[in-house]
Amino acid sequence: MEKEESDSLIEKAKLCLRSGRRDKALQLLYEAQKLYPSTRARALIDAITRNGSAAGEGSSIPEYQGRRKPGNEDEPVHGTGGDAQSYTEEQVQGVHRIKKCKDYYEILGVTKDASDEDLKKAYRKLALKFHPDKNCAPGATDAFKAIGNSYAVLSNPEKRRRYDQFGDEQQMENTAHTAHHHNFYREFEADVTPEELFNIFFGGRFPTGNIHVYTNRGATFSHYYQPRRRRMNERREEEAEENRSQNTFTAFLQLLPVLVLIFISVITQLMASNPPYSLFYKPALGLVVSRETENLGVPYYVDKGFEKEYQGASLRELESTIETDYIDYLQTSCWKDKQQKTDLANLGRLYRDERLKQKADSMKLENCEKLNRLIGRQRGE
């Protein structure tokens, strides 16, 4: 499962490379490597970090050159739509030069002590010159592969060291003349394909829009470029990513009021202190000491340190508040008792239930009686 997810991330990264989004591609490759380490992901990461900045350094991107179809490699190849498409003698000679090269340095046209910058400049120039969309000469695709493979090997310090040590001119000469049967210089194959390297180097901006079919020594090959489908896939990927971001943001907005309420509640609880009194016994708050107000004798409960904090005027002011709260409490309770008694009496009459009538008649309004006594005491009766 992890390997499949890693492969999927690598494919997404390759799509990003074709559309020029190197940073996004690099992020996806790091995720793939973390999920399931692989040589493929590591090679692409190394290629991007080494060559990612090469694009844009004064390089120009060629325009699209039309379509190719099978034909004799010595004859011009014509595109569809009536537009003649041909190759020049210079392009043919360039392909022949690449095929005759005996080592990677000769292919790129650099010396063995060439720096990384020299390799980049040489690759940029040759890749644009021999890309199948630019060069329609027979064997140009093989030359393009050889150029990409040469740069991929020589730009990797370890592969370059091994190549300098073990490379064999005779072996490479043999493989160079049989490139249509297997990859150029199989002894030192690159970890990335020429197209992937080109996309890394130029940000996927080269207009590849056709099916190139070429021939070489009687063998026919097809190279498929499908930008429309690729753009559709990239667009789907981008839309899916935007939808995920929007859904996450929408969910956050929906939860935001709840989060704000929770935050306010927590802050309120942290800042709120226990009340100094209660009309009822509340051991959980420490209000266990019974007292009565001096004026009306209203019972209330306080904590053990109450007398130290409230004395004189502050005590009288607090007890006045307690008496007002107690009167409000009795008024509310009295109203509820009267309402309950009235409801029972109405039900008894409605259902002609003597038991309900008797219960209503015998119901005492204790809170109302307490209220009346308190009001009378307040009036001095």
Automatic annotation (TrEMBL):
Q: Which segments constitute the J domain?
A: 103-167
Q: Where in the cell is it found?
A: Endoplasmic reticulum membrane
PROSITE patterns assigned to the protein according to its UniProt record, in alphabetical order: DNAJ_1, DNAJ_2
Alphabetic keyword roster: Chaperone, Endoplasmic reticulum, Membrane, Transmembrane, Transmembrane helix
Q: What main location does UniProt list?
A: endoplasmic reticulum
Membrane topology term reads:
Single-pass membrane protein
Q: Which domain of life is it from?
A: Eukaryota
One cellular component term from this protein's GO annotations in UniProt: endoplasmic reticulum membrane
Q: Which PANTHER family match?
A: AT29763P-RELATED, DNAJ HOMOLOG SUBFAMILY C MEMBER 18
According to UniProt, the name of this protein is J domain-containing protein
User: Organism, per UniProt?
Assistant: Acipenser oxyrinchus oxyrinchus
